[in-house]
Model the fold of this input.
Amino acid sequence: MSTVKPMAPWKASKRDRLRDALIFLATAVFTFAVVEVTELKGKLAYFALFLISYSVATAALSFFKYGATTAKDSAVKVIIAGGALLTVLPIFSILATIIQKGYKGIKLNIFTSDMSLATPTDPLTNGGLLHAILGTLILVFVALILSVPIGILTALYLTEIKGKFTRPIRFLVQAMSGVPSIVAGLFILSAVIYPITKANSGLMGSLALTILMIPTVARTSEEVLNLIPQDLREAGTALGGTQWRTVAMIVLPAAKSGLITAMILGVARIAGETAPLLLLTGGGDRINGNPFNDPMGSLPFYIWKSFNAGSEEAITRAWAGLLVLVLLVLLLFTTARFLSTRKVSR
Amino acid sequence: MTSALSDVTSAPRIPGLRAAGTGLEARGIHAWFGKHHALADVSLDFAPGTVTALIGPSGCGKSTFIRTLNRMHEFIPSAAMAGEVLLDGKDVYAPGVDVTKIRLQIGMVFQKPNPFPSMTIGENVLSGLKLAQLKVENKDDLLEECLERAGLWKEVKDRLSAHGGSLSGGQQQRLCIARALAVKPQVLLMDEPCSALDPGSTLRIEETIRQLSETMTIVIVTHNMQQAARVSDYTAFFLSDGGPGQMVEVAPTTEIFSRPKDKRTEDYVTGRFG
Amino acid sequence: MTTAPAPREITTQPRRSDRIFRRVVTAGGLSSLAILGLITTFLGYRGFEILWNEGLSFITGADWTVSYDESNNVIDSNFGLGAMLVGTILCAFVAVVIALPISVAMSLFLNFYAPQWLKKILVTVIDMMAAFPSILFGIWGFLVLMPSAEYWGKLLNKYLGWIPFFEVNPYIFTRSPFVAGVVLAIMIIPIITSVSREVFSQAPLDRIQAAYALGATRWAMIKAVVIPHGRSGVIGGAMLGLGRAMGETVAVYTVLNIVFQINWHVLLGAGGNVASLIVLRFGEATPYEIKALMAAGLVLFGLTLLVNALADIIIKRTGKSGR
Done:
């Protein structure tokens, strides 16, 4: 009985794969040859020529084998795959550039000192970005404390109370996620700094980041809370629990890892935000652990300042800062991914 | 309506008398979903111009089997199969076969009516031509012919430019049959075509099936034994005893329901299980 | 024959803890309304004077000059956002034109072409790209992409220069709206891709199968079923990307050459962007000019709100129709 082997005759056979590989190779060689010989040059020429000739080659093959309809299908397939490749190329270019340029700037001393006694154009052994890392952590932490309750309450309103404002609030959250970051900065400037504090501080930056973070937290939390099965809630109410107790003791604990994911995604959204910090934090060069007073540095501000200083050392500093920032964001992002996939597999 | 029903049952047809369309032959078909062996060693001949009903309890592999016939099986990512399906003597799974041409020759009607929502009734019927980029001389004639054969022409001829979704469920299903007919298949597969419909619509579709069988080969999966008895020339009984689904017995329909050879078939058709 | 009794009215008297809970949650939910309202109020309050003085020329004018006497009193001021608004729209438009086809190709690839393992990797990579900070795109765009983008601009000018839109005079390609648009395109690809991937994946499976069963090739199926189903969702996603591109500050500031002159020539190295203007002028602005920047912020806020609202309406509509 079990002597019959499962087969998938619709999948490409070894011969087909070899043939496809040969066509791929031949097209690549052809592209290089043409770019060498003719006046076409540059990345664009390679990419476009390869894409066109590869799609023509596969289409021609399908045409002789099956006819015009399938030929068109093959050509479209190559073009769509080319579009997908076009999305991925910049990401790899960005990652490669950061690593290549940033690692030169990564010295031990940058993690132990600030820029209070150094200028951006000093050699790299002088100064560092400790104040910026510390500042970013404080800014993000304060924004987290402020935005998570509001974000989760909004999500609870949308999923648990479902009152008459559900539709407008869902729309407003969407609209809020489209608020340009510079506008959030101007708002804090006009509503808090000018009338009240009259001075820059870390807290002001955090307030602007809070506005930008709330929609991310609210929308992700809403999605998570919607995944909690309705019977869990009914079970809670049927046992005589009040809605408040049901939410606090059943719904929220069940959604815990999802809510953490929401927070992390919110943090990843704001950690690299630059524009409002330029207006609000004052961007100090000295280590400052107090968000309520005095200018506070941050990684984006540090990168911005170094990049605009323009000298070779300064730009290397900027890349090193970007490398640290991106590593931070990727770390947060991977943690969020890990938590959310674990939740699904459960 | 009731007279149509008595017509079908009172005139049991003699299979093999007519030869229209092209036959289909399945040889040693197995099917897998990943590691799960869903169907084992089914060999079945569909003679030209006959209606064959596949019956059996759910999960016995009859739908899987019908989907191997026109290569719709391979859309499930982990799917695998073994065996041969011969259309007009040629293996549809042979390397180098254009699968889209196979599906043009072996049409299919699905369980739930699925007209294209963005198209009008007329466009729906002719959509197969557009999809496969076929040319026809006279579209209007073809449109009328297909709708006529699907038994829908009288009802929709004045509103061909209305959307397919505006029809009732039974009309939508007949629209889907008309759509399948427009590309002139030699074989028509029907996967429980009436399971989502009311009894009245079911009768209309059964009538349509009988008329169509004069010109083409039809394979119909059904969970309704009365329906199998009403429309088919042959009936094949599928069963899974916990392992992969198998074909227990195939015979002319009258025999299956009057004197089945296998005890399990008898149990099923007399309603002892399933 | 008794008449049917009138339905009883069910009244529930929630416990106090629940009433408080509901009030707190509702208050939290309304915070987004409060924040958006406050933004409008405060920016309007600060910018009102300028808007009143300038009138319509705040939108249409292109000059941004202000002069003071020795004791810092304003002698003369001219605040016109026209050049910046044109530039904002131009850059965002270029970004969407480039990003839209690429994103659609990517989401079709993910849903209908890529094997499962590749799909997983690509989805992660794209989500990751969405989390990249905008300053990274700006600096990378300035140092790595700009030389190539300038070259592409020259090619466009060489072959399409006869169209006024692609005209370049004087012959300066550096830091043009086109270059900024390319950088913005890369930034909004993840947004448009994730929206269109979502709507394409909701294309009804039974219709897809029906198309295949009628002998359609994959592309014919996509054209007949997937595109009609997802069209308005994709447009909505593009609008979201447009909104994001219009509000972007740092990346555009880094790449674009900001000039106070209305310029519709996309390849010419002179452009504008409302958000970048605010960063550019903020450092040395007097309190009076800051009011103008607040007004500019208000205009930008209104513009992005409008675009986002349109996007929302369009995406919602897909959910309902097409079934």
